[in-house]
Amino acid sequence: MPRRKEYVRRPYAPDYVSVNTLAYRLDCSPSTIDAYVKAGLLPRPILIGSMVRWRFDDVAKFLEDGLTEVDDPYVKGLKNGAQK
Q1: Which DSSP state fits 28?
Q2: Which residues contact 33 (CB under 8 A, 6 or more apart)?
Q3: 16-17 and 46-48 as β-strands: parallel, antiparallel, unpaired?
Q4: Could you give the domains of the chain?
Q5: CB contact at 8 A, 31 and 19
Q6: Beta strands across the sheet bearing 16-17
Q7: What is the pTM of this model?
Q8: pLDDT tens by residue, 24-33
Q9: Which stretch of 11-25, 36-50, 68-82 has the lowest confidence by average pLDDT?
Q10: Do residues 65 and 73 make contact, with C-beta atoms less than 8 angstroms apart?
Q11: pLDDT per residue over 48-77, tens digit each?
Q12: Burial class of residue 54 in the structure, from the number of CB atoms within 10 Å of its CB (0-12 exposed, 13-18 middle, 19+ buried)
């Protein structure tokens, strides 16, 4: 019997992530992801068929390059964490 998806261990992180996975990876809520996308603090997702996904490499690059003048303490923490 195949194992349930949430119990499957992958040897690598997925390239394209859902809002829940992105929120998990950034240690925040899905509503924070939505708010940051609307505010331009995160890149907009893409549609793959009917699935809304973010390319995680694009998110990581956006965090490294684009968050120099943001006044949000959570985003500053993400930026500082990316530098370590």
Answers
A1: S
A2: 19, 22, 23, 26, 42
A3: unpaired
A4: 12-83 (1.10.1660)
A5: no
A6: 16-17, 51-55, 46-48
A7: 0.66
A8: 988 899 999 9
A9: 68-82
A10: no
A11: 999 999 999 999 888 887 655 566 676 666
A12: buried
